[in-house]
Specification:
The structure is a single chain. The N and C termini lie far apart (54 Å). The chain is built from 11 helices and 9 strands. 46% of the residues lie in helices and 17% in strands. Helix 9 (258-284) crosses helix 10 (291-297). The chain has 2 domains: 4-93, Phosphorylase Kinase, domain 1 (2-Layer Sandwich); 101-314, Aminoglycoside 3'-phosphotransferase, Chain: A, domain 2 (Alpha-Beta Complex). By secondary structure, it is α+β, with helices and mostly antiparallel strands. It has a 5-stranded antiparallel sheet, with helices on both faces. A two-stranded antiparallel ribbon has the order 6-9. It has a two-stranded antiparallel ribbon with strand order 7-8. 39% of the residues are buried.
Length: 315
């Protein structure tokens, strides 16, 4: 399945002979393609997995369906399956709204949304963490996983030793929170993966990194400085910790230990630094020559600076 015509045929077949119109590509990420179209005049979204991606989109589809059942605001799952070439796909209801952080944080039309979002995000995360386990999700030790990724980049010559990141890794190991019963974790809950309207949160999207783990991981990731996009407030550049934690608890997520969230915030910053290195390594290895990937690699120093500030506060 290579082109728009093939995709139209597939969609018509899997949607009961629906008439497919206005098929247009929205993005082309490393692991999937996203297209918008109309089926019998109704707007829909289809995402399909790229060849070579090891993640199984059918698991993500099950997570989206489970999230919907648990009361998480998500696009309704319409259909899922595999195409003739074996690539997985899922069809979702189209939801109008904005995802660009800069607009959400600054444009006047989202002023009411900004006032409501921090509380809405806390409530949404409480719903995420109430979901029953989904078949196929695994528990991952993030310290071990990203240490291995960095070591592999260094061994391949596309990465270099990172003393600051090693210092932070040791701090993370020494201060690791006590294990908790794992729950479903979104894995990338932040501006950019949320659809927001003038009234506030409309949908949580991009569940491809969902896994089982500590629910505080999602709260910490939401507060990582990189995802504030230059704004001062710690929660996505929009609100304060207390507001997020109170909304999370009020929605049934339980009491929040701010120190544990802070640990996950430090880990998230450390992880994002390594992810920047890994994305740059794709460019440096010649696998995909990209100015964007190269530029992301230059952001490692920003994360190192943020980690110095974070550990100064922690110590």
């Amino acid at each position: 399945m290579s082109g728009a015509d093939d995709l139209s045929v597939l969609l018509a077949d899997r949607l009961g002979g629906a008439t497919i119109t206005e098929l247009s590509r929205l993005s082309g990420g490393a692991s999937r393609e996203t297209w918008r179209f109309r089926a019998n005049g109704i707007p829909r979204i289809v995402q399909r997995q790229r060849a070579g991606d090891e993640r199984d989109m059918s698991i993500e589809a099950r997570v989206v369906a489970a999230a919907d059942s648990a009361g998480v605001p998500v696009p309704k799952l319409i259909a899922t399956g595999t195409s003739d070439d074996g690539s997985a796909f899922m069809v979702l209801a189209a939801i109008d709204g904005e995802t660009i952080a800069r607009k959400l944080q600054r444009d006047s039309e989202f002023s009411n949304a900004r006032a409501a979002l921090t509380g809405q995000l806390g409530s949404a995360l409480a719903a995420v963490h109430s979901m029953p386990a989904v078949n196929g999700l695994e528990t991952v030790d993030p310290i071990a996983y990203y240490t291995e990724m960095l070591d592999n980049a260094i061994a391949s010559g596309t990465g270099t030793p990172q003393p600051m990141l090693e210092l932070v890794r040791r701090w993370l190991i020494e201060h690791r929170p006590r294990p908790v019963e794992p729950v479903v974790v979104h894995g990338d809950f932040r501006l950019g993966n949320l659809i927001v309207g003038v009234d506030g949160l409309r949908a949580v999207i991009d569940w491809e990194l969902a896994h089982l783990g500590d629910p505080m991981e999602d709260l910490g990731w939401l507060c990582v400085k990189a995802w504030r996009f230059g704004q001062r407030p710690p929660v996505a550049g929009l609100g304060e910790y207390d507001e997020l934690f109170s909304a999370y608890a009020a929605a049934g997520g339980g009491d929040v230990d701010a120190d544990v969230v802070r640990w996950w915030e430090v880990l998230g910053t450390w992880k994002w630094a390594i992810m920047c290195i890994l994305q740059a390594s794709v460019h440096l290895s010649g696998a995909t020559r990209s100015h964007e990937l190269a530029a992301i690699g230059r952001r490692v120093c920003e994360n190192e600076h943020d980690l110095f500030l974070a550990l100064e506060d922690c110590w």
